[in-house]
Each structure stands twice: as C-alpha cells, then as structure tokens.
Automatic annotation (TrEMBL):
This is Transport permease protein. GO terms for biological process: lipopolysaccharide transport. Pfam families: ABC2_membrane. It comes from Eubacterium callanderi. GO terms for molecular function: ABC-type transporter activity.
Length: 269
C-alpha cells in the first residue's frame, strides 16, 4: 500500500515537472494560434476589438430599442456578459478538438497531452484580454463611471479560465471516444447562451425559470464580472466561494477524467 501511494505521489510530481519543462512549447503554440487566426487579415489583431464592438451595436439596436429592455448602460451590460461567454465558448470548443487536431504530433513525439487543452484555453484568455479593450472603449464613449473595483477584474477572468480548463479537459477526453460530442455541444452552447443573462436582465424571467437558471455556472462568473466593472460592487465572500468552488470542482474532475483516459487516446485518434 505504501509503495502504491508513493508511486502515485511520484506520478503527480512528474506530472507537474513535465508541465514546467514544456512551458516554452505552450508559449509557442499560443503564439502560433494567434498568427494563424489573423494570417492574411488586413486588420489583424484589431478584429478582436472590432468584433465585439460590432456585435454590441447590433444587439443594442435589437434588444434595447425593439424589445425595450430598460437596462442602464446596456452596451456595457451586454459586452460584459458576452466577453465571459465568448471566453468559455471559445476555450471549450477549441479544447474539445485539440487532441484530435494534434493527433499527428502526438503519434510522433511524446508531449503531455493536456498541454493542447491548456494552450487552447490560454489562447481564448488572450482573446478575452483583447475584448477588454473594446469594453473600455465603449465605457469611455458612454462616460460610464469606472470604480476602483476595476482592479479586481483579473479575479473573475482567472476563475473563468480555471472553469474552462476543467470543462475543456472533460470535453477533450469525451470527444476522442465519441465524436458526436462536437455536434451536441454546438447545440448546447446555443441554448447555454440564452440561459445566461447576457442580452437580457434576469429580472424578466419567471420565478420557476430563475430556479433552473441558478444551476448555470456561467451566471456566477458573468454577475461577478459585471458587479466589479459596471456597478462598482465588491463581490461577497459567498460569491467568491461559489465561483472558485465551481472552477475547482470542474478542474479537479477534468484532470481526473483526462489522466484516467489519456493513455488510450493513441488507439482512437
């Protein structure tokens, strides 16, 4: 028994040592994805700022004018929700196919396979930082008051990143064995967006719908982000516990699922 525990501890220690050893590869993979995304694009990285701005103009025209949503500073309200959702959506969708997409490399050389999932989440994190520029531009144009709580902005982004890595590890593992996951997840993310108060205030929902939506993890990250950016509120201890608790739960479960199945990937990719 002692030998088994010792071997397990050594295995976990080796796991993190390998991560440190491959940190430069991780950096290069993120850099590669950024270059590939904006290759042959005239505006290049500027699209990461322009895209949320254009989406904001369309959604503001539709929902604040046609549907008469009475939300103060609606463009910023929308952008704060969109930024968090796009972060998770991009990170998890890319993570889901990361193992299969890198099959030729995995078959040729040894690389810790979770590196590919982590890289996709880091790439989405970088894109989220670009989207912050669009948000600040709109806040400046609309003269939205910026509270000192803005310094807490990295906290919800880190929480969201950890949540995305955990969910990405689960999806990446499942997609290796069941390729239908990709099609099902596309439908789910569409429903997920409408179950998250991004384009509408949650107050308009009936009580029974609110009780269902309360199980949506994204609500807590969106609300946390909005509170510090738009409303100048300091999130409570309870809110922090919920957000970090959800993130760690998904991360730990994702690591467990991925580690338990990664040796079988080579037979299915």
């Amino acid at each position: 028994m002692d030998t088994e525990v010792k071997n397990r501890n050594c295995s976990m220690q080796d796991y993190f040592q390998k991560f440190y050893r491959y940190r430069y590869l991780l950096k290069e993979l993120v850099s590669r994805d950024i270059k590939v995304k904006y290759r042959r694009s005239v505006l290049g990285v500027a699209w990461s700022v322009l895209n949320p701005l254009l989406m904001m103009l369309v959604m503001t025209a539709v929902f604040s004018t046609i549907f008469k949503f009475q939300v103060e500073n609606y463009p910023v309200y929308y952008l704060t929700g969109l930024l968090i959702f796009n972060f998770v959506n991009e990170a998890t969708n890319a993570s889901m196919t990361s193992i299969i997409d890198n099959a030729p490399l995995i078959k040729k050389v040894y690389i810790p396979k979770y590196i590919f999932v982590l890289e996709k989440c880091l790439f989405a994190f970088v894109n989220a930082l670009y989207s912050l520029i669009a948000m600040f531009i709109i806040m400046l144009i609309l003269r939205v008051h910026v509270s000192w709580t803005i310094v807490l902005l990295p906290i919800p982004l880190v929480y969201t990143f950890l949540f995305s890595v955990g969910l990405g590890l689960i999806l990446g593992t499942c997609n290796v064995f069941f390729r239908d996951i990709g099609h099902l997840y596309g439908v789910w993310t569409m429903a997920w967006m409408y179950l998250t108060p991004i384009i509408y205030p949650i107050e308009i929902l009936p009580d029974f719908v609110k009780s269902v939506v309360a199980f949506n993890p994204l609500i807590y990250y969106v609300n946390y982000f909005r509170n510090i950016v738009l409303y100048g509120m300091i999130p409570s201890f309870r809110e922090n516990i919920i957000c970090i608790g959800i993130a760690l739960l998904f991360l730990i479960f994702g690591l467990w699922v991925f580690k338990a199945n990664q040796d079988k990937f080579i037979l299915h990719i």
